Amino acid sequence: MGLSGLEIYKKLPQTNCGECGVPTCLAFAMKLAAGQAELAKCPHVSEEAKAELAESSAPAIRGITIGNSDKSFKVGEETVLFRHEKRFENPTGLAVLISDDDSDFDAKLDRVLGISFDRIGLVLAADAIAVKGTDAAKFASAVEKVASKTDKGILLVSEDPAVIEAGIAKVADRKPLIASATSANWEKMAAIAKEKGASLVVKGQSLDEAAELSEKIANAGAQNLIIDSGSRDLGSVLADQTNIRRLALKKKFRPLGYPTVIMASEMADNSLAEATVASSFIAKYGGLVVLSDAQAETLYPLLVERMNIFTDPQRPMMVEEGVYEINDPGPDSPVLVTTNFSLTYFIVSSELESSRIGVHLAVHNSEGLSVLTAWAAGKFVSENIAPFLQKSGIFDKTSHKKLIIPGYVAQMSGELEAELPGIKVQVGPREAGDLPKFLKAWNPAKDSVTA
Questions:
Q1: DSSP letter at 327?
Q2: Measured on CA atoms in the order 14, 15, 20, 25, is the torsion positive or negative?
Q3: Long-range contacts at 351-355 (CB < 8 A, ≥ 24 apart)
Q4: According to a count of CB atoms within 10 Å of the terminal CB, is the N or C end of the chain lower?
Q5: 372 and 409 in contact (C-beta within 8 Å)?
Q6: Which residues neighbour 419 within 8 Å (Cβ) at sequence distance 6 or greater?
Q7: CA neighbours within 13 Å on the CB side: how many for 182?
Q8: How far apart are CA 130 and CA 445, in angstroms?
């Protein structure tokens, strides 16, 4: 049975230095007891305490990082069964499979690497390339080619240790993921993973066998594991995912305390069915999903679904406060103000860009709330907006002293003018889609706008 937070606290240095990212040692101890933090984050804990606390303070689901670049990604470290309890921590990784004997290997690789989408300030794309090995020499060449073209994560897919050795020799420094260790090859695969510092997929023919194998491999020194229960039927995989998550979080069952991989590429016979499988396990506990291919029209919905599910429900998406210059504005260009809710910002900025009119867009920190919500909550009001605009110095850069506010908060125009002496506040349209027409009629020499 794990130690309580107070018992863990007694073994910590009790410096309250905050270097672990938590204000006090007691708060850190509570997080350790709940499996929500790693002991390694404390720089002052003694080696003796590390040995005593290693088991009790380990996260219920181990965090695994794939890759070593700025495009590396992490899976695992989840602490709840349901997002509304708190939040999900690390988004499901998406990998696309290419076999070393594919006749269109280069074309497929280039196509997959070329798929990306900009959405509310984020770049959405697949996280990794999975290379399937059929021959050691071909595999080594294919892996080397992938490594030369991208710094995304790399998965090495083969159950033949000789093939894996040929491939990993080309990318050992990239922290790849090896798939898979089975009951027939686990000793050799574990040795490769341990030697090269790679992560390893543990594949059983059942959940019980996967748990048994993971325990053996962890004892052999390969610690960074991902579980593949071996099931390929949608209902069975869903049951396995639920059982793994529950056993890890509720029962602290260490042999299954790892993230999971879903081989969607082996669970469907067409791209739409495969996307449906992937969608199911982005929503329900998949740590990594491997697809047989990626087309823009099937990958985009999965990326958006993932973004939505793994957004912290307690923290709105927001952009940084500041003045954004759109379409190369000059001193005669209009000044608009809005909130820093991501969706608001990107809808407004998109309309402004399409107008081809230079604009100074002042984005006020409303704690990620939309215009009306922020106004109602007292976050987007004159006494907050005025100091922000004064500090920004925006009106020192313009030849006019006019500010355009969203039409939905027209009622604060008078208050804002009182807070900003010398500034004329103009009421803009309610809807972002009306901004281009409004701005075309805007004139810095006039106090009103007639669209």
A1: S
A2: positive
A3: 351/432, 351/433, 351/435, 351/436, 352/326, 352/327, 352/435, 352/436, 352/439, 353/326, 353/327, 354/436, 355/327, 355/435, 355/436, 355/439, 355/440
A4: N
A5: yes
A6: 382, 383, 385, 386
A7: 11
A8: 60
Domain boundaries, given as residue ranges, for the chain? 5-57, 64-309, 322-441
Task: Categorize the per-residue pLDDT at 147 as very low, low, confident or very high, splitting at 50, 70 and 90.
Answer: very high
Overall fold of domain 322-441 = Rossmann fold (3.40.50)
> Which pLDDT score is estimated for 31?
84
pTM for the predicted model, two decimal places: 0.76
**pLDDT band at 47; cut points 50, 70, 90:** confident
Q: What is the mean pLDDT of the chain?
A: 92
Alpha carbon dihedral 242, 229, 257, 246, in 10-degree steps, equals 20
Burial class (CB in 10 A: 0-12, 13-18, 19+), 69: exposed
Element holding 73 (H helix, E strand): strand 73-75
Tell me, what's the pLDDT at 40? Answer: 79
- Asked if CATH classification 3.20.20.20 holds for the domain at 64-309, the reply, yes or no, is yes
Nearest residue to 284 via CA among 320, 251, 333, 235: 235
- Cβ atoms of 233 and 242 closer than 8 Å: no
Over residues 317-338, the mean pLDDT reads 93
CB neighbour list of residue 55: distance below 8 Å, 6 or more residues apart: 2
Q: What SS3 state is found at 386?
A: helix
| Neighbour-count burial for 196-208, b at 16+ CB within 10 Å, e otherwise | bebbbbbbbeebe
Beta bridge partners of 407: none
Cβ(226)–Cβ(62) below 8 Å: no
| Phi and psi torsions of 113, nearest 5° | -65, -25
Topology of domain 5-57 in CATH is 3-methyladenine DNA Glycosylase II; Chain A, domain 3 (1.10.15)
Side chain identity at 246, as an amino acid letter? R
Chain centre distance of CA 191? 31
356: left (phi over 0), alpha (psi -120 to 50) or beta: left
Q: Taking residues 374-383, what's their average pLDDT?
A: 94
Which residue has 């992490």 as its token pair? 74
CA distance 50 to 98: 42
Q: Is 324 helix (H, G, I), strand (E, B) or coil?
A: strand
Rounded alpha-carbon distances, angstroms, from residue 173 to 67, 69, 163, 176, 254: 9, 10, 18, 8, 28
Q: Which amino acid does the sequence have at 289?
A: V
**In contact, 175 and 128? CB cutoff 8 Å:** no
